[in-house]
Write a structure and sequence with these properties.
single chain; alpha/beta; Aspartate Aminotransferase, domain 1; Aspartate Aminotransferase, domain 2; four-stranded mixed beta sheet; 13 helices; 17 strands
Length: about 400
């Protein structure tokens, strides 16, 4: 008999009832150090006092009013995002998949408005993950996500991730955009690198395409900059963000330049819940913290400490860990054993991590971790590697 909750997840047999900082407490009293952050969502950890206060204040005033009316919180948060990055305008939604759908719609609408309706195809990368809608699973192209959902949405031409020659060779008269994650998360914490991002920007400019970056997982400080593309000193035309933007509250956004988004007029896109007052209170509070002077510098400092300790771990346990990957606090352990085995054993020992493609274990701790959390995580990792080594 099918359960009341549709069984679309392979869930671990644990339930959490409260969290504080980088720690979660299960209903049975066990405590876990959270280096998964709800898959890079709880960027400020659990129950961050500033985020709690902002939501408590807003929840007592107004939850929802719809986008039939002005939402002052949207205007405030959009203005802060625009001031902090390349974008001129922002569309708010509820998730990363919705943000990517908005990006993909914008790409087609832009070229149609420019008198090039035949340009609708996107060059995308192998190993990508862009969401779970029909269009975004087609953009991601992973068989495990596509199986059973034929016919596959058309419009995506796949090339090897990080391969500039293949990217350029795939561009044709119907190409509208290049779509890429600066660091692939689900694909195995694979960093595109600054040279590839710069090459993608150059190819888009040369052929009159839009460059779309999926920063759903890499954005909001995860790599040590507000957005990962800033390491390459380039700017996209369109970008999807979500996850850390709400610190745990469902918020997504499509950011774009004026040139790219001038086609998006009243009625071209919409969302009932997107950018409601509660969501905007959460995003505004997250920005208060992440944009505060010195915050991202501290993320970089802590990330360097964690990366150094993980490199030492990998050197000490080569039968378990092949290499350490990633950027900032978006790190991965490429395993020599099944990554699911390591995730399960780490959880049994009190550390939460996230599996990824290419046999990788993701480490996505809150951006507010310090030396104490690094020490605790490495103690568990070291003990677990000793237990699980072949």
């Amino acid at each position: 008999m099918i359960p009341a909750v549709m069984p679309t997840y392979a869930r671990a047999d644990v339930a959490f009832e409260r969290g504080e900082g980088s720690w979660l407490t299960a209903t049975d009293g066990r405590r876990f150090l959270d280096f998964g952050s709800g898959v890079a969502v709880t960027a400020l950890g659990h129950s961050h006092p500033h985020l709690v206060a902002a939501l408590e204040a807003q929840i007592a005033k107004l939850w929802h009013c719809s986008n039939l009316y002005r939402v002052p919180g949207q205007e405030r948060v959009a203005g802060r995002l625009v001031e902090a990055c390349f974008a001129d305008t922002v569309f708010f939604c509820n998730s990363g998949a919705e943000a990517m759908e908005a990006c993909l719609k914008l790409v087609r609408k832009y070229h149609d408005g420019e008198g090039r309706p035949e340009r609708y195809r996107c060059v995308v990368a192998g190993g990508a993950f862009h969401g779970r809608t029909l269009a975004t699973i087609a953009a991601g192209g992973q068989e495990k996500h596509l199986a059973g959902f034929d016919p596959i949405v058309d419009g995506f031409d796949r090339v090897a991730f990080g391969n500039t020659n293949e990217l350029r060779a795939a561009i044709g008269p119907q190409t509208a955009a290049i779509v890429v994650e600066p660091v692939q998360g689900e694909g195995g914490i694979r960093d595109a690198g600054v040279d590839y991002l710069r090459a993608a920007r150059a190819a888009a400019d040369e052929h009159g395409l839009l460059l779309v970056l999926d920063e759903v997982q890499t954005g909001m400080g995860r790599t040590g900059r507000l957005f990962a593309h800033q390491w390459a000193d380039i700017a996209p035309d369109v970008m999807a963000v979500a996850k850390g933007l709400g610190g745990g509250f469902p918020v997504g956004a499509c950011l774009a330049t004026e040139r790219a988004a001038r086609c998006m007029t009243a009625g071209t896109h919409g969302s009932t819940f997107g950018g409601n007052p509660l969501a905007m209170a959460a995003a505004d509070a997250v920005l208060d913290v992440v944009l505060a002077p010195g915050f991202l510098d501290e993320v970089c400092r802590v990330a360097a400490l964690l990366r150094g300790r993980l490199d030492q771990l990998a050197a000490a346990h080569p039968a378990v860990i092949e290499e350490v990957r990633g950027l900032g606090l978006m790190l991965g352990l490429k395993c020599r054993i099944p990554n699911g085995d390591l995730v399960a054993r780490l959880m049994a020992n009190g550390l939460l991590t996230v599996p990824a493609g290419d046999n990788v274990v993701r480490l996505l701790p809150p951006l507010v971790i310090g030396l104490a959390e690094i020490d605790a995580a490495l103690d568990i990792l070291t003990r677990t590697c000793r237990e699980i080594a072949p």
